[in-house]
Amino acid sequence: SLVRHYKFSVISKNSTRLCSTKSFVTVNGQCPGPTLYAREDDTVLVRVTNHVKYNITIHWHGIKQLRSGWSDGPAYVTQCPIQPGQSFVYNFTTTGQRGTLLWHAHITWLRATVYGAIVILPKRGISYPFPTPDKEKTIILGEWWKSDVEAVLNEAESSGLPPNISDAHTINGHTGPVPGCTSRGYTLHVESGKTYLLRIINAALNDELFFKIAGHKLTVVEADASYVKPFETDTIFMSPGQTTNVLLSADQGVGKYLIAVTPFMDAPIGFDNVTSIATLRYKTTPPYPTTTLTTIPALNATPLTSHFIDSLRSLNSKEYPARVPLTVDHSLFFAITVGLNPCDACPTGSKLVSALNNITFVMPTTSLLEAHYYNVKGVFTDDFPAHPPIVFNYTGTQPANIQTNNGTRLYRLNFNSTVQIILQGTAMIAPENHPFHLHGYNFFVVGQGSGNFDPEKDPLGFNLVDPVERNTIGVPNGGWVAIRFRANNPGVWFLHCHLEVHTTWGLKMAFIVDNGNSPHESSFPPPNDLPKC
Ligand code: C2O
């Protein structure tokens, strides 16, 4: 295994997209930023230097951070931000991991433009558990606002209302041509007869996305850097933070084919129907017209999303067994709600908030991991409720009181204990699919369903053999998912909705996992250059 060094210079950059120019925050002047390459079991050191006026942190989404929680990155969870003029070296390993992940800023909404791919190849001499592709390509999807994204966030926060939606989706940074504004768009060049491994990443801020290529089937082989049983599909569905590896055979010989990226939105509010396009082009193709798609998924194509999600199964081979916890030490039930809390400064007198078990999480002004490590009192409490305060028909009528309680409340897990969380969607104000991401772990998605979770019947149908293993899962609108993991990585680990607007509204919490080896936590001391608040 090797030690890989990277330098991330956080700088502002002027660039023109959708015929309008703005200055925005980038890593090394690029958007998407540089790809991190490593092999399984390597050590990765990334020196991040902040040259902009904003505080920054970087999160390595899906990297387990085994005993390296200080390098996880969420601001005020595992570290204080890197302030203007400062540097911090993130230091982590890729132990036991291989596949496609992403990195992104993890403070305010800077991840709109501060993101990039992580590609972890198998150990030297180890091949993929599927036919070796001739070539590999990374396709990273994002969202683009013509205006300044921090201003969009500030406006939403002061109004208490939903933020302005983005102006376009991007494919490897390109917006694609839009009416009234020509733009080159991204072109995926392929050679006839070759097989490609496409590493597709959804780095959008607030949108779940479909991905489709005209005239070509895709074979899914990996989700969130875990191998899956291969299956063929013509449409990929991904939540923000999720990654999907697919094999593409360039078997059409010649021509140009449309690639479409289109949002999935099943909420009754917030309409966002901007389809972004790119082109797959065979080499030596004369000026052919582009073959278009016969169908583009509808904005509310829920059956397509559930079909795609249901098709994902762990590979569960001898080499890559699915180690699903068969027993449960901590049984948790988290109800996801959106509420309206009083807000004197807001024009409507109230503001949208979101909560797990009626707790709207409030970020501290120092880091939770430091407070835990140094045993600082008064930063958080460890009494996060394991169950909702009231039991109601989650997907039916709303309870009369839709206010939530603020709190910096964490839930303590014993080292190496097994955990099950039922994430239950509700019909409170804005029923919607919520992609939940857990830091520090992968989890197994042992069950999912529509309506209210039935604690008697539903567990009988759980898949404890080959459930998909991932780090981000969509809780369906009007339904639930059940996840399991083993808490064998000490630290403070964030759990949150990866639609950034919902994180802003408080749809987040954190787990404390004690260090099984040492009461003094001394097996993972903070690095010397850890930023101060
Ligand atoms: Cu990809 Cu806590 O985020």
Structure, explained:
Its main location: secreted. Residues 12-123, 136-283, 384-516 form the Plastocyanin-like domain. The structure is a single chain. By secondary structure, the protein is mainly β. It has 3 domains: 1-128, Cupredoxins -  blue copper proteins (Immunoglobulin-like), CATH 2.60.40.420; 130-314, Immunoglobulin-like; 330-513, Cupredoxins -  blue copper proteins (Immunoglobulin-like). Helix content is 6%, strand content 40%. The protein has a 6-stranded mixed beta sheet with strand order 10-9-12-17-14-15, with no helix packed on it. A hairpin with a 2-residue loop joins β1 and β2 (20-27). It starts with a strand and ends in a 20-residue tail after the last strand. The protein binds CU-O-CU linkage (C2O).
Look at the structure and name the CATH superfamily of the largest domain. Answer: Cupredoxins -  blue copper proteins
Widest beta sheet: strand line-up: 10-9-12-17-14-15
Mean pLDDT: 93
Assign the structural class, choosing from mainly alpha, mainly beta, alpha/beta, alpha+beta, or little secondary structure.
Answer: mainly beta
Number of domains: 3
Number of helices: 4
User: What kind of sheet is the major sheet?
Assistant: 6 strands, mixed
- Inertia-based shape: globular
Strand fraction = 35-45%
EC number: 1.10.3.2
Domain Plastocyanin-like: 12-123, 136-283, 384-516
Cofactor: Cu cation
GO cellular component, one term: apoplast
